[in-house]
Amino acid sequence: MTPPRKDNRSVTPPRWSWQTHRDRQEIAPALGKGPRDTYWRVPGARRVDTGQATARRLSIWDAVSVAFAVAGLFYFSGSLVAPLTPEGAASSTAVQLLGLGFGFLSFLGLIVRPGAVTRAFTKAWPVLIPVALAMLSMTWSIDIGVSLRRVLALLFATLFGLWIVDRFPLHIVLPLIAWSAVLIVVANVVTSLALPSMGVHPGTTVQGEPNPHAGAWRGLFDHKNDFGRMMALCVSILWVATGPGQRWRRVRWGALALGYLGVAGSNSAQAALLAVAVPIFGHILFLLRPLSPSKRAMVVLMAGPVMVTGWVFYQFVFVFVLSLLGKDPTLTGRTEIWIGVLRALQGNMGLGGGFGAGWDLVGERLYILMGIRIGHAHNGFLDLMTDLGVVGLCVMLTFYVYLTVLSVHTSFGDRFQDLGRLGFAVATFALVGNGAASFLLLHNSIYWVLPVVCVAAMRRDNRRPTASRRAPPPRPVKNIFAS
């Protein structure tokens, strides 16, 4: 209720905005205020100081921004590619226009925000290095048209990620991603259950031959491995997003159950590995947080022998079990392709064939060497080498190692630990998952949007408050995320 003034006239509360809320968020901890209440009861959000909430409702523009962010994350997940692509077509104009729209609107959103472009270059510069290398590769690309389209799609995904970080307070970033993961899981699993003609691999291929993936779930995707990998990514995100609200906990556990059901239905060995290994690594990081730095260092030193033991266990037990099941230990069944790709890359090992066009160079050579025609190497590191060579591979490995170190540092810090855990999960997912898939630097994809968001969010500068910027008395904020 609006407090009355002495002259019996009411005072209209100031209109709330994300920027005002961000200022409160950055000021309150420096004023020595402890966490006394949680006005933003959202999934994955840390407890918010009472000085951070300054009004009782959101503006329509803020709600539109939230909807745009969630819709964009759903689009970049790839869930719309197969439904919008005509049968037999290699690409879809509708998908390309949607990507152009999200990228262009994100660019406009950055332009109109004071200082956003400067912050992108000064604070989020690590994410711009891979994009710059991809742009530079057009100078030596064997198909500049393909490289140009791929570079633009990569740039639009980068702009979208930078816009999310600059538009919303940091403690809202993880909730946006978590709710998007819930939407992705529900939409895909429901499609597999309710529309098996679309969400399940048919018994025969288009050519009328028996389908080796018959009965496997694929959701809104074209292939079961893509569907299973996305479900594994979503459950990895949901394990991190531990929000305070009872309602969110029920939603989270329900989405986790559906996500693991989707992983099982996809019959993808790689998805099963990612859905189990990434949350385990994240939980280990969480358990290390209460330890002192010296004890953490001791644990890291002890981890070496444990990893060696685990590798031996993998070689003698895991490989044996997969062999009994008739599966290849690499989880792809095409290990001979990797050696053939390296042989086909000779002469272009340093820089590759240009971003998005490298396989046009390697594919024909691989066919001459091995007599097989495929569209990728079934290994993200090799696929990146075909595009950007050893230089690009070194750049991306350095980027993900940096993301891992930054995430660990943030996880052990005092603020936004959940963002650190999210970044660690994203980096682990990329480094492990690209052993059998190709998304190390993928254009128009959430697999690149999430690293951009994590790096930009954790590097965002928190301005030091002054006495003149003391926060006013708090007001509850309407919960648009329904805790």
UniProtKB/TrEMBL annotation:
<protein>
    <submittedName>
        <fullName>O-antigen ligase</fullName>
    </submittedName>
</protein>
<feature type="domain" description="O-antigen ligase-related">
    <location>
        <begin position="256"/>
        <end position="395"/>
    </location>
</feature>
<keyword id="KW-0812">Transmembrane</keyword>
<feature type="transmembrane region" description="Helical">
    <location>
        <begin position="60"/>
        <end position="82"/>
    </location>
</feature>
<feature type="transmembrane region" description="Helical">
    <location>
        <begin position="300"/>
        <end position="325"/>
    </location>
</feature>
<keyword id="KW-1133">Transmembrane helix</keyword>
<keyword id="KW-0436">Ligase</keyword>
<feature type="transmembrane region" description="Helical">
    <location>
        <begin position="124"/>
        <end position="142"/>
    </location>
</feature>
<dbReference type="InterPro" id="IPR051533">
    <property type="entry name" value="WaaL-like"/>
</dbReference>
<feature type="transmembrane region" description="Helical">
    <location>
        <begin position="422"/>
        <end position="442"/>
    </location>
</feature>
<keyword id="KW-0472">Membrane</keyword>
<dbReference type="GO" id="GO:0016874">
    <property type="term" value="F:ligase activity"/>
</dbReference>
<feature type="transmembrane region" description="Helical">
    <location>
        <begin position="269"/>
        <end position="288"/>
    </location>
</feature>
<feature type="transmembrane region" description="Helical">
    <location>
        <begin position="148"/>
        <end position="165"/>
    </location>
</feature>
<dbReference type="Pfam" id="PF04932">
    <property type="entry name" value="Wzy_C"/>
</dbReference>
<dbReference type="GO" id="GO:0016020">
    <property type="term" value="C:membrane"/>
</dbReference>
<feature type="transmembrane region" description="Helical">
    <location>
        <begin position="94"/>
        <end position="112"/>
    </location>
</feature>
<dbReference type="InterPro" id="IPR007016">
    <property type="entry name" value="O-antigen_ligase-rel_domated"/>
</dbReference>
<feature type="transmembrane region" description="Helical">
    <location>
        <begin position="380"/>
        <end position="402"/>
    </location>
</feature>
<feature type="transmembrane region" description="Helical">
    <location>
        <begin position="172"/>
        <end position="195"/>
    </location>
</feature>
